[in-house]
Write a structure and sequence with these properties.
- With 145 residues, this protein is α/β, with parallel strands linked by helices.
- Helix content is 43%, strand content 23%.
- The strands form 2 sheets. The chain has a 5-stranded parallel beta sheet, sandwiched between helices. The protein has a two-stranded antiparallel ribbon with strand order 3-4.
- Strand 3 and strand 4 form a beta hairpin.
- The structure holds adenosine-5'-triphosphate (ATP) and magnesium ion.
């Protein structure tokens, strides 16, 4: 089974792109937000961000076991956490990017607080998802939205 993960800073266009890609390739579309709720994946306290965050270890464990059970030709996984899936399960890692003014506009129109916008803008400026994806050893493709 081919697994394409679509990651990137919130607001860079993952969902829009991932849904289109899944449709085009006739692959299963997996939204990690929905998966976390359905699978009741626990939250842990992230000391660095001083906020609740999904337990990545549990997410990976449940996602891998879910992927192994699927009979589809392929899957597109949509999440800013998608690049945490180990390299051996991933055919391609797409990192979405967009300009900083565009990102600010998009996040503002969602009603995000200044603090949340600034945290995401910093993540985009420092290419956090892109660098983590490279460090994980993925084959990375960058798409601008
Ligand atoms: N190529 C594009 N052209 C125009 N608008 C776009 C494009 N890609 C995304 N957008 C718009 O930007 C906003 C954010 O896109 P989207 O919801 O796909 O981001 P996301 O990365 O999935 O965000 P999150 O991580 O919060 O789920 C949406 O309003 C979407 O319509
Ligand atoms: Mg999304």
């Amino acid at each position: 089974m081919k697994v394409i993960v679509v990651s990137g800073t919130p607001g860079t266009g993952k969902t829009r792109y991932a849904k289109r890609l899944a449709k085009e390739k006739n692959y299963l579309y997996i939204d990690i937000n929905e998966f976390v709720l359905k699978q009741k994946i626990p939250y842990v306290y992230d000391r660095r961000r001083k906020a609740k965050a999904v337990d990545i270890f549990e997410l990976k464990r449940k996602l891998i076991s879910h992927l192994k059970k699927l009979s589809e030709r392929g899957a597109v996984i949509d999440s800013h956490l998608a690049h945490y899936l180990p390299k051996r399960y991933v055919s391609l890692c797409i990192i979405m990017k967009c300009s900083i003014p565009k990102l600010k506009r998009r996040l503002k129109s969602r009603g995000y607080s200044e603090a949340k916008i600034s945290e995401n803008v910093d993540a985009e400026l420092f290419d956090v998802c892109f660098n983590e994806a490279l460090e994980a050893g993925h084959k990375v493709k960058v798409i601008f939205s």
